[in-house]
Write a structure and sequence with these properties.
- The protein is an all-alpha fold.
- Among the domains are: 113 residues, no CATH class; 103 residues, Up-down Bundle (Receptor-associated Protein).
- The chain contains eleven helices and no strands.
- The longest helix is centred in the last third of the chain and has 58 residues.
- It is flat and about 80 Å long.
- It starts with a helix and ends with a helix.
- Keywords: Cell membrane, Membrane, Transmembrane, Transmembrane helix.
- InterPro entries: T2SS_GspF_dom.
- It is a multi-pass membrane protein.
- It holds the Pfam family T2SSF.
């Protein structure tokens, strides 16, 4: 192999090492100088700090502070290319993650960069060993970058779907507890507070957030409607609509809660029946493609063998 073929990987590795050393040097504490706005802002800010009770945990989808500026620029490029910020924000809400579209795009850029680096290493090794073409290596890097970006998007979709499944699994029990609390004489807000304190899970966390919105100034129907909008589950939205109508029109809340709990149980049974049907169809695949061919082979092969011997 010529010296030129060995010089390209060495040059790439040397450039990567130099860029890494430069990034580490720029990220040292002695190099991070606060600008004028950072120094003056604490003295001129007139808005009070929000209460810690209203904080919802992590405020954004953070990335490493050393690479954050570069990743946010790459994320902005990904967002301008792909678009769909409304869909991303919606899926972040459904997944229970902070609605930080910029941070999510930065994570997509990070996944793409990591996939591209892995593809570059594999392409370099193939080029040195087998003499593969440079065009195929570059194509592999481009495809890997796109695959990493799409994989992060698909991971968000799967996280939202899994969270919805957990909420649906918790929903009948929470509806029963709410119906029992209201039947015992508690109001809607008190029943929600009791269930949120005594239970755990995704739905109880959403109930706690709903109560936090109500205590922050929103009315209880508005807070409940926000819960239904965040989750996007049809059965939970119907449950919330029943409670909102009962609260606004003065309908006896206990009867409404019991009816809604019964609907939640029926919906859970329907989901179990549908899941059982899907599993039954999935069980047919090994039977049809594995067991049945082997059975036919065992039934037909002796006859074919006898015919061949007779001939």
């Amino acid at each position: 192999m010529s010296a030129l073929a060995w010089s390209w990987p060495g040059a790439l590795l040397g450039a990567a090492l130099g860029v890494g050393i430069l990034l580490v040097y720029r990220g040292l504490p002695m190099r991070r100088r606060p600008d004028l706005m950072t120094r003056v802002e604490p003295y001129i800010r007139d808005s009070p700090r929000p209460s810690r009770l209203l904080a919802s945990g992590q405020a954004d989808l953070g990335v490493h502070h050393l690479l954050a500026p570069l990743l946010h620029r790459l994320g902005a490029a990904v967002d301008s290319t792909l678009g769909g910020a409304v869909s991303v924000r919606r899926r972040l809400e459904r997944a229970g993650q902070p609605t930080d579209v910029e941070g999510f795009r930065a994570q997509q850029a990070l996944w793409g960069v990591l996939a591209g680096l892995a593809a570059a290493v594999i392409g370099s090794l193939r080029w040195m060993s087998d003499g593969a073409s440079l065009v195929s290596a570059l194509a592999l890097v481009v495809v890997s970058v796109m695959g990493g970006i799409v994989a992060r998007d698909q991971a968000l979709t799967r996280a939202a779907r899994r969270r919805e499944e957990r909420i649906l699994a918790e929903f009948p029990s929470v509806a029963e507890m709410l119906a029992l609390a209201v039947t015992a004489g508690e109001g809607a807000a008190a029943a929600l507070d009791r269930v949120a304190r005594l239970s755990s899970g995704e739905l109880s966390g959403e109930l706690g957030r709903c109560l936090a919105d109500a205590r922050a100034g929103a009315t209880l129907p508005e807070a409940l409607q926000g819960l239904a909008d965040r989750t996007g589950i049809a059965s939970l939205a119907r449950f919330v609509d029943g409670i909102v109508v009962a609260v606004e029109r003065g309908t006896p809340l206990a009867d409404v809660m019991r009816a809604q709990a019964q609907d939640a149980r029926d919906a859970s049974k329907q989901l179990l029946i549908e899941e059982g049907g899907k599993r039954e169809i999935a069980m047919m695949i090994p039977v049809v493609f594995l067991v049945l061919p082997v059975t036919i082979l065992f039934a037909v092969y002796p006859g074919l063998n006898e015919l061949r011997l007779s001939l």
